[in-house]
Amino acid sequence: MSLRNIFIVVYLLLSSILFASFTCDVYVWLSFFISFIIITLITYYNIFIEAEYSPFIAAYVVFNYLFFLLAPIIQIGSFTETNNRFATRMIYDIGLTLQTNGLIILFNLIFFSSYLFFKKKYRNKITKIVAPKNEKNLPLTILILFVISVAVLYFSMDFMMDEFSRPNWLKSTYSVFELLVQKKVLFMIPLAIIVLCYQFYKNQSKITNNTLILFFILLGSFLLLLWFKNPLTEKRNALGPIYIALIFLFYPKLLNTNVKIMSFLFFAMILLFPLFQIFTHIDYSFEAIINKPSLLSKEFTDAKFATTFNTLNYDAFSNISATIEYVSKNGFAYGYQLLSGLLFFVPRAIWSSKPISTGELVGDFIIEQYDFNFKNLSNPLVSEGYINFGIFGVILLSLILAFFMVRLLIWLNRPDQLKRIIAFYFAIHLLFLLRGDFTNGYAYFIGTLIGVLIIPKIIHKIINFALKKEQ
């Protein structure tokens, strides 16, 4: 049996169990089922019909299935008359749930239609064969970038020591702007060096002095990347796109088809990650489990697999409902909330009235309305559109997302390795961007874009210009 058929069988089997065991109001059940049908059609298109390699659609499908189907169905299905609150303490409401699914269905329909439209419009650019450029000054660019990264290592030691010693729950003493520049721009330069070294070796046919020197730079860049980007200083949503992108770069056969990347993300996010959460939150010691393995099965029979989906990690659906309720009481933002993301680079010290992120805004609303104790919540792209411009905002953001996906699909099919890796990075980062909030998702990607693509390109152009002028 082919991987496509295996995936579809597992996908449909899991979905059948999910909906067969889902006890709720009939209209709520139908609204989720309609959403499931749309996601299934997109899935079928991606792995059976779509000719181009598009990891963007794989990430989009997995996000929707996990956060807008699996998690909320498990959450709502576990509610009782005495316990009907989401992880944010927001009370389950049938009307709000139907409105939430309505917005999600609208977003998915407009997005998929727009994606097909833009793909048809830019098909010639997507399929166009472009010969790789002869980058004869590439070794010098790599050397300068490596020197910059070593300098960043030296000057960031105090910052890194603070990151290593600070618990995740404790707010950093550094400003948001400093954190963004260091962690999302400067600390990402070693990734660019690794990609450029790969590009150099791919086009190299014989061993030279540059070959040996760049080999040691490549090893040093890997060490720098591991120092800057590791589980002790970064969250998993920041590490995942980096190291999955490296797998794609060096071992493309593992992820280079739509069904492979779809299967990888689906099983990793929907099955493996919840299982790992059970192991990291298990009630028994390792020694106790070795002595009595039946304790492990007890963890599963106690429904701990399902309860992992009742945490704040999977609050995206309920936060759309919270946003709808917020708008009903406070009105639309008319684009004001988008400014905190689009103008993220403007420090709050200069712009004192700069809006807080939508996740924080809705978080404050939930604290006020439902006596919750945490405000830095996710806020999906669906509700970012709704809080700003209502139904029109949902349609607008789905159109913009589809457009940028197709534009990055062009990059993914080019020989320029930096553009290819940025495009693939975005596909994995999409899981974070779709969950939101927009301010963090957008700012983090733009920071990576600057560190991995723009800075190396600028340095390379300066070198070429300087050498030509000297000649």
Automatic annotation (TrEMBL):
Looking at the UniProt entry, the stretches that span the membrane are: 30-49, 56-76, 96-118, 138-157, 185-201, 213-232, 238-254, 261-279, 386-406, 418-436, 442-459
Q: Which UniProt keywords apply?
A: Membrane, Transmembrane, Transmembrane helix
Which protein, by its recorded name, is this? Oligosaccharide repeat unit polymerase
